[in-house]
Amino acid sequence: MAATISTPQPRLHIKPGTTWSEAFARCHEIAPEAFDSDRLRNLWGGEWRRTGNPLHSLSPVNGSPIAGPPMLGQEEAHEAIRAALDDHKEWRDVALAERKARVRAAVDAMDTHRELLALLLVWEIGKPWRLALTDVDRALDGVRWYLDEIDGMIAGRGPLPGPVSNIASWNYPMSVLMHAMLVQILAGNGTIAKTPTDGGAACLTLASALARREGLPVSLVSGSGSRLSSALVRAPEIGCLAFVGGRSAGGQVAAALVDTGKRHFLEQEGLNAWGIWDFSQWDTLAAHLRKGFEYGKQRCTAYPRYVVQRQLFDRFLEMYLPVVAGVRFGHPLAVADDADPLPELDYGPVITTDKATELAAKVDEAIAKGGVPLYRGDLADGRFIPGQDTSAYVPPVAILHPPAASALHHAEPFGPIDTIVVVDSEAELLAAMNASNGALVASLACDDESYARRLAGELQAFKVGVNKPRSRGDRDEPFGGRGASWKGAFVGGAHLARAVTVGPDPNERLVGNFPSYSLYPEV
After folding, report:
1. In this structure, are residues 470 and 441 in contact, taking their beta carbons and an 8 Å threshold?
2. Of 163, 186, 258, 396, which is least surrounded by CB within 10 A?
């Protein structure tokens, strides 16, 4: 019998044209005012400045060096705030038609460089290619929608007394942070943003350079939250604070705002839960759960908690375990052949090696204190380049009954870790789903939709889906949170436009969570 000769499989490698050095060189060529050959610049007063100490940053993709944010001190941050106020005073007098024309031109410029912006997101925060493109597209398409709708939204309203200060987490630099800034500008305000320290600096720098070229009042600064807080949160020049982040940082920001009376909206995390009760549509649920692993659940509307009726637990596991075992993760830019398309992955790395270490410690803690490991993936299941640094990658994990003394019991992990709780009664279901004192979203899987809607009224989540997930939403869909997950005005559609403008009624009550009242829209 003739011997069978096996053909060696080609080794994975980074697709040509997608390396960090190539991406950064293109940025320097497109926007030399914002990108030096060796670093990024800060922007205020219409000038890109070679100031601040660049942070030593590593890409979560493979641990290689990338351009870090140039970190400013408090004095320079105050200077930037004063310059942003000057921008604001000039911009608020620009006619709406001119504002729309300039914002549209900036959006078109960003669209021209759509793929480069997405590639920067891959290297800086580890998004797979498809999801990085989606982040860019959602930002640009969303602003185009506001361009068509803004006239009616701000009719009879005027800009805030000062610029909007934006502090946001690293996970959605374009579709959350840049999108919000462009809408704030469209409404007549100057803006200043702090670059997220963990990632997104180059992407935001390129987008801000393109916006500034069109005359938009954009300022972009980098620095630690603790050092810049007095400027970006409490400075008297600021007209509004927009914050997206975790509860710990959000609580500190809220405390700093207490006596300022500033307009604000603070989006904070919550343990979003999916309850399963008297349910049989397992194939439909499986598709939702698989999609839920996108970007490693590193988003504010991810569902990391499943609360399951005991009588359905065997059927749930039969559906769930193949889903979690089929999750695809790995290097977002690795191909076997130069001509291959970039891989279709559910997620790449988490944001940093430190975050991966933190998640592993939380899993170990939960198991050590009595949680049951239902599923633990292995890095060997990932799609990696031979020899690459994989320290920022976390395989999917599922823990049954995380003990009350563990962090995974009550807090969102912000990573590809699910926790599952089995319950016997409606009261237990509701209690387990409300474990975090407020959430942004929740869902119920139940064959009786009327029963599910009744239960939904008892959940401490802003949006509740019945047999479907809920998301932040786009265009005119409102977004907010209940309990500790949100403070201040809600956003989305007309609510965002109203949050960054002033109406004729000095006693206007915006939709949102405020110290003296909470007012919720229909969702």
Report:
1. yes
2. 258
Q: What is the 3 state secondary structure string of 366-404?
A: HHHCCCEEEEECCHHHCECCCCCCCCCCCCCEEEECCCC
Give the Cα separation of 322 and 375 in Å (integer): 10
CA 74 to chain centroid: 26
Cβ(406)–Cβ(366) under 8 Å?
A: yes
Nearby residues of 291 by Cβ (< 8 Å), 6 or more positions away: 469
Domain boundaries, the chain: 21-268, 273-436
Q: What percent of the chain has a predicted confidence (pLDDT) above 70?
A: 98
Tens digits of residue pLDDT in 156-167:
999 999 999 999
Concatenate the DSSP letters of all residues of 276-313 into one string. E-S---HHHHHHHHHHTTGGGG-STT---EEEEEGGGH
Q: What's the CATH class of domain 273-436? A: alpha beta
Output the six-digit token pair for 104. Answer: 């549209």
349-406 confidence digits (pLDDT tens): 999 999 999 999 999 999 999 999 999 999 999 999 999 999 999 999 999 999 999 9
Tell me which H or E stretch contains 488: strand 486-489
Give, as one character, the DSSP assignment of residue 260: T
Q: What are the Cα distances from residue 15, in Å, to 12, 327, 328, 414, 445?
A: 9, 22, 19, 29, 41
**Strands 305-309 and 417-423, sheet pairing:** parallel
**Per-residue CA distances from 17 to 25, 332, 383 (Å):** 11, 14, 20
* CA torsion through residues 444, 447, 449, 453, sign: negative
CB neighbours of 516 closer than 8 A, spacing ≥ 6?
Answer: none
Q: Give dist(CA 13, CA 18) in Å, integer.
A: 11
Structural element, H or E, at residue 20: helix 20-30
The model's pTM is 0.95
Q: Rounded distance, CA 32 to CA 482, Å? A: 44
- Which pLDDT value is given to residue 258? 66
Give buried/exposed letters for 372-403 (b at 16+ CB in 10 A, else e): eebbebeeeebebbeebbbbbbbbbbbbbbbe
* Residue 6 confidence (pLDDT) above 50: no
CA distance 489 to 493: 12
> Residue 161 corresponds to which amino acid?
P
Quote the strand ranges of 68-141, DSSP E.
70-71
Which H, E and C letters describe 22-84, residue by residue? HHHHHHHHHCCCCECCCCECEEECCEEECCCEECCEECCCCCCEECCCEECCHHHHHHHHHHH
CA-closest candidate to residue 90, choices 216, 184, 276: 216
Task: Determine the Cα–Cα distance for residues 96 and 90; give it in Å rounded to an integer.
Answer: 13
Is the distance from CB of 218 to CB of 208 less than 8 angstroms? yes
Secondary-structure percent of the chain, ordered helix, strand, coil, rounded to 5: 40, 20, 40
Q: What is the pLDDT of residues 205-248, one digit of tens each?
A: 999 999 999 999 999 999 988 888 888 998 999 999 999 988 77
